[in-house]
Design brief:
With 504 residues, the chain is an alpha+beta fold. The chain is built from twelve helices and 21 strands. The strands form five sheets. An eight-stranded antiparallel barrel has the order 14-15-16-17-18-19-20-21. The chain has a six-stranded antiparallel β-sheet with strand order 5-4-12-11-10-9, with helices on both faces. It has a three-stranded mixed β-sheet with strand order 7-6-8. Helix 3 packs parallel to helix 6, helix 3 packs across helix 7 and helix 9 crosses helix 10. The protein starts with 28 loop residues before the first strand and ends with a strand.
Amino acid sequence: MFKGFFLLPIAALIGSGAQHEPPLYASRYSQHGSRNETHPTARSKYSPVARERVRRLEAGLVPAILIKGQPPPKMNLVDRMKHYKVPGVSIAVINNYRIEWAQGYGVVEAKSGKPVTTQTLFQGGSISKPVTAVAALRLVEDGKLQFDRDVNEKLISWKVPQNQFTEVQKVTLRRILSHTAGLSNSGVGEYSCDDPKPTLLQALDGFPPAKNPATRVLITPGTRWSYSGGGYTVLQQLMIDVTGKHFEQLIDETIFARLKMRHSTFRQPPFGRSGFQFAVAHQSDGKKFKCPFSYPEMAAAGISSTPSDLARLIIDIQKVKTGSSRGILSPQMVERMLTPQFDNGALGFFISGEGKSRRFSHGGGNQGFFSYMVGYADTGQGAVVMVNGTDYWELVHEIIRGIALEYGWSGYLRERSLAKVDSKRLAELVGRYEVSPDWILTLVDQDGRLILMDDRSELLPESDREFFMMDGREFNFTTDDAGNVNGLVMRRNDFIIRARKLRA
């Protein structure tokens, strides 16, 4: 899996937040041989306002960088799908605390002609984490888990191995949910249909046939943020141990059934389940994988869902936050969940903005899929986008930015201007930066250009300490009291990563 997100988160009552999308299931973009044609639409199913918004969005995708004083360049959705070789896209848009519209584009499988609908399931990757977090917080409210106790007190089948780091601080639920537990493995193992699958205990200890190393504490818990799929794998075992239920059953009962998320599952392998239509995983060249991948570490990466179903979860959180509805969590627990614990890392979600701009979000990428969900905490707005292509971060966020522009989302889009940085200042930024012990970023000077060697992307200066990339990544370099560069803070959309500069 990619490094987290860089290289790239109830009472069964009416009013719980569950909403039904408009009854429109036609796809607008299909593949016939080498040609892509636009299907006739059924926009009459929408309100006139929604129809016009959908029309503008389809021609109004927005790039990552907006230049001050210039109108934003807009791109066509179908053209961008062709550009990225993405077979299928599914979108749901939330406005005024309801799903205003949902739509499938393209095909379930390249050259198949079978359209994506609003009921087509996509693998959600790390979107599994905020879904799992909501269920875990429900267990806290039920008295089965505690925020700040050592998880080893509740773990039965497996224990977090103790070492010099756990002698100082303990691994707790709060720290796992906020990626501050110091646990290893930013990603988790991915298993094709031909691969033997490990048990959860084998995955935790890195025993064959597990593909990931053992999950261990590498940093003193509570002292640093370090994205950890391994931490959520520990949480999966913890939730199984305290409930005595299979993980997928627990999530079904706690979330999916209560919110009527009828097209969502954590079952592994997910494909082939009766009555469900699954999108097929595709590579970056547009060709499909031999077969889908499965993820025994379900809490970290195992969900398959639709944008409409995930939007129902967002709406449930939003309505509880405003006090207008009962939901899975209490208003007090929703506030705790949306409170940053370290930088903008909250409990299962990432938090950005303040006031009316405050929003909670999470992305996810498995082999052959990429997804993103975002909801505004106080305005009842948001969206979910899912695609069946590998690492198509750019297309997903072009769509999200187009939605943000169309719906006037507060604080989402930023404009940029370029500055000049002299060679001496540039030389101070060159070096190696440690995000975590197994994740080092390397910056070099190539003919006066600052290059991130991890993906050979250029950092463009907005000042001598503030840089950005054309894909939207932001870099702010930090200094010590003497003015020497000692680290960086990297942002991408709603995510923050800190890294300390290593000595030469």
